[in-house]
Amino acid sequence: MMRKVGVIVTIWVLSLCPHLIDGQGKKFACSFNSQEAASIGFLPKYVPMEICTHVIFKWFRFPRFVGRQMFFDDNDKIAFSRLVTSVRQRSSTGRVVASINGTGTDFSGASEASVRRRAFVQAASTLFLELDADAIELNWERPGIQHGGNGMETDRRTMVTLLQDLRQVVNAASSLMKGRPRELWIRGSIHPLLISSSYNTFDVCDLVDQVTLDAIWTGSLSHAPIHSSSVTINHSEFGHSGDGKIDIGDGLTGATKTWIDNGCPPKKVLLGVGLHGLLNAVSSRKINNFGEDFFKWGSGDIKRMAYRESFGQRGWSFGWDQQGLTPYATRSLNNGQTERLSYEDVNSLRYKMDLVEQKRLGGVYADYIHSDDIYGTCGQAYPLSSYIASRLQAIPSDIGFAIEWS
Prior knowledge:
InterPro entries: Chitinase_II/V-like_cat, Chitinase_insertion_sf, GH, Glyco_hydro18_cat, Glycosyl_Hydrlase_18
Strand content: 15-25%
GO cellular component, one term: extracellular region
Domain GH18: 26-395
Protein name: AGAP008562-PA-like protein
Distance between the termini: 49 Å
Keywords: Signal
Number of helices: 11
């Protein structure tokens, strides 16, 4: 009963500012995980199309090989169709993005061999022709680099070849229905080494319509910071002697700058924002450098928590990281360790939205829409999502600029 009341209140709140960013040109891509959403009773019809210009379906599991063809999972296709139907019924402008998830090895294998590449492209075409997707996204999180990454060091070259083939499919699907352009998206890393080494950014950004940046550092203990610097690492923790430093760039500010400086039009870049908290237990000596410890060194599992459930128990102490411009919370455990929770609030989102405006980015990609306070447990429903949408609506148009990247 409380959920139904919460949904009614949510709809009323969002109706006060209908179509916040219609006509603005800035995208607000809200990701939706059907399994997680179903576990909390969040149905596709609850996705707030009043503020989401795009809904990203997570995930299509990587298609499996049967003979010389590739096929997506039937359950994923059914869940996606339900989302598409719901969006179409409630919005004439909302667009649905089919995100294809896979490991670096999956994508490397599909892009390197011509037979596999043709099979993958053919499978991707079914998302347009059979399931009515508006866009497909490659969630190729960690392309390979020389002596590193999760794929092959040839990924920088073969990624472009795969995108060229997919671009032909996208263009063909767009030509079938006038006024209904289809799009090609790719998930982009915010790790400076991967951006420079794993992506031919000029060609990638020429072929895709959007680059959605990661919301957290790969393997991270916290949300991606606005600013960061070199991190001091105690090598003895890994069986080595001495200390060392690893340069992780200038956070999101540096990551967006690197993408743009390497040839990606700002309007094609969507800044990633995680609406969930990241919970991890660490030794007490690490809690004072929360904003510097961006990577998952050592053991321990990271638990992702929805924003609305992050502080359901007592005993939390709250802090603010000046370097990352993000909030965090800590809580002592009986085993001598400390639980740390990285999360976003309106204050931290203010800095990220300033970055979107200053860099003239194309908008925001939020992970996940149902991780927000969807029922108004702590006050207003959808506090984070509504703030993002209102800021996007307030950003002046880029029409006044004399030169615009295509």
